[in-house]
Amino acid sequence: MKRMLFAAVSLFSLPLAVSVSAQEFDYGNYEALFGEPVTVSATGKPERVADSPVLMDLITAEDIRRSGARDIPTLVHRLAGVDLAHSAAGVADVGIGGYIQPLVSRVMVLINGRQVYFDAFGDVFWTTLPVELEEIRQIEVIRGPQSALYGFNAVDGVINIVTFDPVDDPIDAARVRVGNHGRRDEAATTTQRLADGVGVRMTAANDHVDDYGMVSKVPVNTAYSKDPNRRSVSFDAAAKLSDASRLSLEASHTDVSQRQIYSNLFFDLRIKTEAVKGGYSADTGIGRLSATASYSDVDMPWVQAQPFGAFHLNDRTAELQASDLFKLGADDSFRVGLDGRQGKIDAPGVLSGTLTGNLAAGSLMWEHQLSSELSTVNAVRYDYFKLGRSGSSPAYDIFTNADFDRSNQGVSVNSSLLDQVAEDDKLRLSFSRGLKLPSLANFGELGRYQASYSGLYFFGNPDLRASAVYGYQAGWDHQFRDLGATARMTVFHDMTMSHIGTVYKQVGNSLAQLIEMTTGSVTNGLELGLEHKAREGWNWGGNYTYQRLHEHHDWGLRNATPVNKLNANIGYGWGEWEADLYGSYTSATKGMLITSTVPLRSQVVEIKGFTTLSPRIAWRPIEPLSIELTAENLWPYQDTVPQKMETSYYLTVKVSY
Amino acid sequence: MRWWWAFVIPFMLCLVCAGPGQATTPNELKVAVRVFDFLTVPPRGPTPLAVIFDGQNKASLEDALAIQEGLKSGVSSAKAELLPVLVDARHLDEFPDLHVGVVAFGTGAYFDRILGYAIKNHTVTISSDPSCMQSGKCTVGIGSSPRVEVIINRAVAASCGIEFSEAFRMMVREF
What we know:
The structure holds two protein chains of two kinds.
Chain A: H1 2-13, H2 27-34, E1 38-39, E2 47-48, E3 56-60, H3 61-67, H4 72-77, E4 82-88, E5 91-96, E6 107-111, E7 114-115, E8 136-143, H5 147-150, E9 157-163, E10 173-179, E11 183-195, E12 198-208, H6 219-222, E13 229-240, E14 245-262, E15 265-284, E16 287-305, E17 309-328, E18 332-346, E19 354-369, E20 374-390, E21 406-422, E22 425-436, H7 440-444, E23 446-448, E24 457-459, E25 467-480, E26 485-496, E27 500-507, E28 510-517, E29 521-532, E30 537-551, H8 557-560, E31 564-574, E32 577-586, E33 589-595, E34 601-607, E35 610-619, E36 625-631, E37 649-656
Parallel strand pairs in A: 6-9, 24-28
Antiparallel strand pairs in A: 1-2, 3-8, 4-5, 6-7, 8-9, 10-11, 10-37, 11-12, 12-13, 13-14, 14-15, 15-16, 16-17, 17-18, 18-19, 19-20, 20-21, 21-22, 22-25, 23-24, 25-26, 26-29, 27-28, 29-30, 30-31, 31-32, 32-35, 33-34, 35-36, 36-37
Chain B: H1 5-17, H2 26-35, E1 45-53, H3 58-72, E2 80-88, E3 100-103, H4 111-121, E4 124-127, H5 130-134, E5 140-143, E6 149-152, H6 154-160, H7 166-171, E7 173-174
Parallel strand pairs in B: 1-2, 1-3, 3-4, 4-5, 6-7
Antiparallel strand pairs in B: 5-6
């Protein structure tokens, strides 16, 4: 019966394969009209970022240019409430709202609306994203559960990376970066106008750095040393078929090799990704119809894992999205969306059989303008997820394929209110209910640790269920017009009803690890920010985050969450020169250290609070050329137990033409 | 119309009219010409743009000349090359088939005639003069200080057969 229901919902969604995707929105012209950034990510409808009822930060192309950063995690870490955990040189996990764990992410990440969050592991492999900083128009960071728009897993926030339009925003640039630790990065991007209203952008990049920062350099660990290498090629084309319709096509390939360490367990892996996405949008008599179809393949031809040996992994995901955006009368805007998604993963040795996850979802957003000062946005989404497993599994498996014939479903809600209290003051109130779905690996992992790592069997659990996450936010924005600055204060309270944890169970004659739903947690916090941006003269800003995570049972989350974080930046631009300084302070945390003894020994160790300073100086002697000297952090620090982030210096030469 | 619009419209008009008050500012002109790009059928290529003024009002004439100068000195839409045509509101009928227009300040005596012309010729009329919006004679009212505000009069737009793209409608105020 449930299978029939899923099939019926999927079939219903296919002919309407139509979504509001960031790519289909004319950012450039709206930004030129209003003289300020615009977005569609906050609620699914186009709006000015300043009018968004959700807690959203924007990193613009100009911010990126002035940042000195060479990757997206470094950029978003400078925002309030964002945490990083490095697991190798240039490899980091990103958390929002206090939840920062290796190999687990509760933050949905998208490029032009295409999900790059890796459902199979419930994580984001940032180095595999097929986008260079020069291509990015803006990075939109939304905090708090956003499942009513983005579905399962957008429970701590959403990061949407929006690239420039290949038709309206030609980007032509070449960049070379050299630095210590053998850093060599090269990238080039060019945009070609093929016809009136038709453009294509092509980008290629190659990054290399020598492996560094391994804290425990014993032979059993150094055997996993790997110089991080990344190659990326991407293609982004669009055609304006008429004044009211647009077609887009994106394709990309990345090939990444890197080492990663989690709780002192070493991995050496290669990740190859291929992705293609097509989109169509049109203004019609029934509103703005949009459709996207995408397919991605994530292949890990080798993963050498200290605890369980070598394996390979292949994941394929196809997605169809459809939406209609329309306005009724003067005060009511609606978005109706349908989403169908299928994921399939094979990883013999660590997963059982071939795991599939089929998802069908429907959503509705309604914005109502109560008055010129007061508006409300309400959104609801229903997700139906069908798990499946096929193929054979080892004799010691405790589950059958029939055990995986299960479903998870649930309703997500977002509700917010924006009040323009005075000309310079805005009040934001929001409530949200998101859903965190276990990853396919959580459902179906199956294997055995090496003898030196206990030799235990480990099992996923097809009976896991989606966990509800509730978020409450209240925020106040104030414009200091004389200063040209914006101040923001937000208090938040999040509740996760249950987490995924590991328990030990007797299986047959031996002890085994089994994944189960466990107790939940609560996070309370406060964010303060003040920011002034200008192209010439002084730039300055800062933010402070206080957050406390309370677990019903200690699973290590509260230990990993820094309580106090402070970011500050100051910069000055004069003529062809620019100088910027970015600083941050993160209070002490704790991390897990696992030692490969028999039996395994694990201990909680302190990670000291740390301060980083990252200066940048840039010179533009002639218009197309810029030369930039950057230090990523002036002294080493650790945000995880096994990885030290050493000082990195870069010299970057860029030609933009 | 709902009762609360009686309070809302004056507030919005205050937003629209915030600023110097008696002349179309360069920023308002930039906003005005860009609004044309968001029509469902936007003007393309060389397009005459009516700059409508009251020839008997010196301030109105000066505003129209400033608008004309602004358009000649590079203020333009993304899709069309707008060619300003000074049109004295008293002689509107002598200029048939102008489909986009900017109404200068001080043209109030001829608002009814301007509306009649707009309905007859399906002309989009935009003004930063709050009284044009107040009297429901212009399609679009704009302001640029302290921030850009765009207000569409739905009744006038419907009378003139003018439609804006759905995304644009969601980003501006309508009444």
